[in-house]
């Protein structure tokens, strides 16, 4: 296997494994804690990463990057990666999203049963521990209950370059804070009337260190804990504790959390001092989030596209969600290749959409069966067919479904494996692409025009004789004669030299198929940059539905089967709408990069 290129995360992990940074880590928490039991007695020599989505929407291509990084590093270094639902916010979460996230992780090729452990967690299981940790912080003088209004708190927090102002409630005694915090827990105070704040430094140059709120009152039913709690931890407080309880070693997140790292470290230091957590605590490292041109990666904005019916759903093939990409024809291998190719860096940049498409093309090139489909059909009549071939004769033809594999087989590489073959027939009438006939050929045109010969791919050489037109002058049929004894694969095949072979489908065995021709969803490369309204950037022509005619092997596709429609691109039988009786294909990606055009 090829050596993976190094990156700053790999260097950090390798250094920690060398030094044995976590080899001496010992559990120090209360033995009753769910996470401790769930994780068993972790092997301290292993690295432990986690992917911690909030179950409030469907995952997108940016999450795929994070999944590949976290699960990929654990796999590569013999470690473990946890799938953790960060469900500490009671209002926005839903089990529909929980299930879709599990599906997405597994489909991408990863799982939470790794390192011989089941590593599926939900942060809400730690509410009890988080509460006890908050009581500890109060007792140790590190937290206080603040009754300022939200507005007062915002003003007193100050601004960059301007220190904040201490709350009048900041000097409460631990005993008083503990009493009121317990009242908060017991439902004695109104929602929003007070919060618990960490007591750090109101003059810190980092606003996040100016006594951040760590608990709020919220009478909301939680999907896991029901009405057990009317106070909920803030994300910035919950997240480091989740990592520590699960004995994560390297907590990897995107750059926007860099300013939160001092609080992450502050909190875990305090709780480690108090003997509540193992030492050394996990460490947070930030990497650049994925920005992809012509794509939006914000769950909130993607949700808006769904709820405003700009797309057909989360799994619309134009969506950058994992379900959307999957329905579009993307493969786990292509997305993993993409994650490898873009790498891990410490500074934000934009990745060109063609990079993603290139990965899919590369994956499908050797795997996708070939087939012929006529997307803009016109009928071609072989006027001498009945005379030279016999009236109504249908001649069986075939071509390899995987030309590359066939090539290898002839080289003896894949001996014993038979290359799959597609079968179809040719008769008096076939469908061809309208653009393959020109009454008056432009300079250099090699396809059908009166007097020119071409090959019908996998069939016969034919000679064009003209066309018929309707009253309005539109071409209704292209006319040609078949050159006998020139069938592909027979000794006479090369007896007549031609400059072009064109794709076609027999009128007798061709099958009508709905083909969804997708284009980019947005016209701007950065649809939501600089506060732009991304809705205005929607491409009105991002979907064109056409009726194509496909060869029988394509009509027999199963949902999710991928093909190369020769000369047109890669297509997938739609997972949702394709049936044997009514084939439906989605354009996954063209054969060539067209983004530069
Ligand atoms: P969104 O902003 O789309 O709602 P999020 O960051 O709120 O995404 P979470 O479910 O909280 O979504 O994220 C789970 C993990 O995925 C986090 O560790 C987050 O850093 C990572 N992630 C989210 N978006 C991207 C992205 N564009 N590139 C890389 N990682 C991402
Ligand atoms: Mg989030
Ligand atoms: Mg977010």
UniProtKB/TrEMBL annotation:
Biased composition annotated in UniProt, kind: Basic and acidic residues: 34-45
First-tier enzyme category under EC: ligase
One GO MF term attached to the UniProt entry: glutamine-tRNA ligase activity
Compartmental location: Cytoplasm
Pfam families: tRNA-synt_1c (PF00749), tRNA-synt_1c_C (PF03950), tRNA-synt_1c_C2 (PF20974)
The reaction(s) this protein catalyses: tRNA(Gln) + L-glutamine + ATP = L-glutaminyl-tRNA(Gln) + AMP + diphosphate
Chain location of the short sequence motif 'KMSKS' region per the record: 296-300
Binding site for ATP: 54-56, 60-66, 254, 289-290
SUPFAM superfamilies per UniProt: Nucleotidylyl transferase (SSF52374), Ribosomal protein L25-like (SSF50715)
GO BP terms: glutaminyl-tRNA aminoacylation; glutamyl-tRNA aminoacylation
Keywords per UniProt: Aminoacyl-tRNA synthetase, ATP-binding, Cytoplasm, Ligase, Nucleotide-binding, Protein biosynthesis
Annotated segments matching region Disordered: 24-45
Chief location: cytoplasm
UniProt keyword Ribonucleoprotein, yes or no: no
EC number: 6.1.1.18
A Gene Ontology cellular-component term: cytosol
Domain Glutamyl/glutaminyl-tRNA synthetase class Ib catalytic: 46-364
UniProt binding sites for L-glutamine: 86, 235
Domain Glutamyl/glutaminyl-tRNA synthetase class Ib anti-codon binding residues, every copy: 368-481
tRNA synthetases class I (E and Q) anti-codon binding domain boundaries: 502-574
Sequence motif: 'HIGH' region, positions: 53-63
PANTHER family attached to this UniProt entry: GLUTAMATE--TRNA LIGASE, GLUTAMINE-TRNA LIGASE
Subunit structure: Monomer.
Assigned protein family: Belongs to the class-I aminoacyl-tRNA synthetase family.
Protein name: Glutamine--tRNA ligase
């Amino acid at each position: 296997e090829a050596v993976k290129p190094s990156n700053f995360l790999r260097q950090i992990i390798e250094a920690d494994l060398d030094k044995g940074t976590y080899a001496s880590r010992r559990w120090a928490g209360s033995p009753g804690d769910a996470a401790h039991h769930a994780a068993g007695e972790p092997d301290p020599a292993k690295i432990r990463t986690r992917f911690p989505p909030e179950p409030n929407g469907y995952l997108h291509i940016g999450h795929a990057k994070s999944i590949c990084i976290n699960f990929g590093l654990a796999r590569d270094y013999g470690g473990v990666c946890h799938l953790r639902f960060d469900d500490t916010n009671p209002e926005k979460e839903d089990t529909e999203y929980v299930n879709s996230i599990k599906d997405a992780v597994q489909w991408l090729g990863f799982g939470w049963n790794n390192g011989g452990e089941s590593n599926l967690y939900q942060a809400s299981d730690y509410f009890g521990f988080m509460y006890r940790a908050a009581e500890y912080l109060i007792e140790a003088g590190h937290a206080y209950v603040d009754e300022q209004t939200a507005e007062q708190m915002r003003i007193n927090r100050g601004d960059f370059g301007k220190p904040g102002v201490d709350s009048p409630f900041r000097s409460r005694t631990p005993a008083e804070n503990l009493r009121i915090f317990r009242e908060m827990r017991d439902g004695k105070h109104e929602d929003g009337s007070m919060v618990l704040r960490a007591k750090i430094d109101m003059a810190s140059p980092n606003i996040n260190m100016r006594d951040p709120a760590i608990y709020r009152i919220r009478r909301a039913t939680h999907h896991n804990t029901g009405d057990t709690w009317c106070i909920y931890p803030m994300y910035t407080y919950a997240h480091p504790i989740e990592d520590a309880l699960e004995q994560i070693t390297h907590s990897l997140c995107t750059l926007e959390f860099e300013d939160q790292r001092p609080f992450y470290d502050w909190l875990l230091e305090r709780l480690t001092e108090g003997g509540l957590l193992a030492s050394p605590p996990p460490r947070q490292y930030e990497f650049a989030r994925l920005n992809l041109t012509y794509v939006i990666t914000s769950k909130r904005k993607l949700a808006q596209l769904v709820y405003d019916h700009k797309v057909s759903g989360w799994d619309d093939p134009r969506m950058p969600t994992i379900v959307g990409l999957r329905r579009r024809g993307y493969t786990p291998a292509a997305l993993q290749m993409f994650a490898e190719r873009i790498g891990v860096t410490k500074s934000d940049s934009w990745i060109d959409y063609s990079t993603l498409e290139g990965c899919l093309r590369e994956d499908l090139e050797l795997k996708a069966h070939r087939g012929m489909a006529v997307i803009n059909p016109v009928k071609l009549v072989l006027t001498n067919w009945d005379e030279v071939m016999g009236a109504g004769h249908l001649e069986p033809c075939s071509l390899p479904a995987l030309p590359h594999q066939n090539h290898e087989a002839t080289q003896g590489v894949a001996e014993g494996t038979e290359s799959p073959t597609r079968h179809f027939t040719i008769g008096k009438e076939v469908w061809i692409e309208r653009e393959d006939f020109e009454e008056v050929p432009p300079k250099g045109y090699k396809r059908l025009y009166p007097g020119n010969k071409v090959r019908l791919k996998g069939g016969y050489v034919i000679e064009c004789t003209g066309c018929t037109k309707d009253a309005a002058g539109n071409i209704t049929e292209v006319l040609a004669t078949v050159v006998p004894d020139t069938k592909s694969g027979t000794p006479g095949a090369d007896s007549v030299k031609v400059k072009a072979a064109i794709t076609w489908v027999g009128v007798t065995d061709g099958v009508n198929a709905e083909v969804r021709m997708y284009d980019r969803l947005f016209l701007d490369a950065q649809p939501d940059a600089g506060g732009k309204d991304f809705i205005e950037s929607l491409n009105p022509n991002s979907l064109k539905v056409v009726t194509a005619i496909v060869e029988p092997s394509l009509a027999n596709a199963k949902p999710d089967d991928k093909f190369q429609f020769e000369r047109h691109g890669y297509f997938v039988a739609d997972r949702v709408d394709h049936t044997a009786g009514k084939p439906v294909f989605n354009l996954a990606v063209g054969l060539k990069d067209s983004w530069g055009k």
